[in-house]
């Protein structure tokens, strides 16, 4: 392929990586401002802290998604080798574990317990 194509791909992956980092940093800053605002408005410290943790976790999750996308593009389109594919697999496994852990931390329950406790419609008919 042409050299300009690889240059464009490298620039694209770099932009996606910078976007992911910016999402994490701006998410932390925005969450920090939001928690201070909530405390100033009279919200209890524990409620504000839980809100802060949730918002920071969401920012990290979204930023990780961008970083994984950049790694996939880099591995598949720019450096398609067995070694880079194995490295990508390791990175995806680590980031998947981090995402899963953050999701559990944000939601406060296991993903398979998401619908536990919700009332299911009764299958009995009333005559």
Describe, in plain words, how this protein is organized in 3D.
The chain contains 3 helices and no strands. It has helices at residues 3-40, 45-78, 82-107. α1 runs antiparallel to α2 and α2 (45-78) runs antiparallel to α3. The longest helix has 38 residues, at 3-40.
Short description:
The chain has 127 residues and is an all-alpha fold. The protein contains three helices and no strands.
Keywords:
127 residues; mainly alpha; 3 helices; elongated; disordered C terminus
What's the structural blueprint in terms of helices and strands?
Layout: H1 3-40, H2 45-78, H3 82-107
Helix pairs in contact: 1-2, 2-3
Sheet of most strands: none
Number of DSSP helices? 3
Decide which structural class fits the backbone: mainly alpha
* Termini Cα gap: 72 Å
Mean pLDDT: 81
Radius of gyration from CA coordinates: 21 Å
Give the ordered list of helices and strands: HHH
The count of DSSP E runs of length 2 or more, i.e. the number of strands, is: 0
- Oligomer state of the chains in this structure: single chain
Shape: elongated
Binned, the helix content reads: over 70%
């Amino acid at each position: 392929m042409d050299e300009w194509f690889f240059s464009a791909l490298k620039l694209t992956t770099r932009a996606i990586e910078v976007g992911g980092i910016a999402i994490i940093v701006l998410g932390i800053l925005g969450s920090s401002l939001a928690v201070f605002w909530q405390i100033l408005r009279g919200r209890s410290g524990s409620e504000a802290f839980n809100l802060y943790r949730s918002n920071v976790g969401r920012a990290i999750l979204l930023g990780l998604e961008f970083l994984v996308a950049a790694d996939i593009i880099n591995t598949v389109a720019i450096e398609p080798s067995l070694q880079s594919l194995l490295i990508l697999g390791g990175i995806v496994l680590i980031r998947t574990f981090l995402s899963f852990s953050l999701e559990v931390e944000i939601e406060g329950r296991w993903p398979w317990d998401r619908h536990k406790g919700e009332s299911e419609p009764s299958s009995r008919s009333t005559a």
